[in-house]
Structure formats: C-alpha cells, structure tokens
Amino acid sequence: MKNETTLQRKSDCKLVVTRTFNAPAQIVFDAWTKPEIFKAWWAPKSMGVPLLSCEMDARTGGTYRLEFGKDAEHTFAFFGKYIEVKSNLRLVWTNAETEQGAITTVTFEEKGGKTLLVLHELYPSKEELDNSIIGMEDAMPEQFEQLDGLLLSLV
Q1: Between 20 and 30 A from 70 (CA), which of 19, 40, 109, 112?
Q2: CA dist., res. 67 & res. 87, Å (int)
Q3: What contacts 24+ positions apart, CB below 8 Å, involve 82-86?
C-alpha cells in the first residue's frame, strides 16, 4: 500500500506536510536525526544534486549542516540550530541560511506500528513561503518515497 504525501498551505506563512510511514516512530525519528541514515534519503534523486555531507548534533541547542552539490567545488549548504528535540516525538529547528529562514517542526505519532509524520514550516512572510514552495510539491513526495524505501530495510 502506497502512502500519500499531502502538502497544504494553512496560511500566508504556514505550510503543513503529512505522511504515514510503515515503521515505528523510533525508526522514523532515527532517519531524521542520524546523519548516515538521513543522507541516504533526503536529496531527491531526480534533481541530480546529491547530499555530499551531513553533520547533525540532534539535541536541543545542537546544530546541523547539509551540503549539496555535484562536486566539492560547486556546493551550497543548508544549516541551522535545533530548538527542541524530543526523542521519537518532536523535532524543531531553524533554517538559518537567510535572515528570513523558516522554523520547521516535525512530529512523529505512532499508531499500530506506523508513524504519522506531520511537518510544519512557518515562514516570516508570505513572500518567503511563496519562494520556498516552488518545487516542494514534487521534491517532498519524492523524498518521502525514498524514505519509505529505506525504512523497509531498517524495520
């Protein structure tokens, strides 16, 4: 059974993405917080820009840095700080690449061995969400499909 990813704009500044995964919350949470697992699914393969490095200190006050690129000379990075980390339940982080970075909250709710993941992105303005949402409709479902496939090998 294929799980559907839904993206909904809840306001001018808020985007909510939901997906159910056929794995316990602990395994899904690990996939979001352990660099060696995260690196295997986060970059949508169709975009052809791999995740070259992934540093995560997934604890409240810790930081992360994701570096993408086709080679070491042509890279771009996403980075920020974890505001809240509650194992198997909740992650909150900043997206600090710009002064207008979003705050991302991901919750993990386990029911019957499956996990409902809800991702909230809160942007400081409508314009920032408008700029960020371009391409997300394709990228996030692909990312979550990749995570689904990886979870099969982790369960």
Answers
A1: 19
A2: 25
A3: 82/57, 82/58, 84/60, 85/33, 85/58, 85/59, 85/60
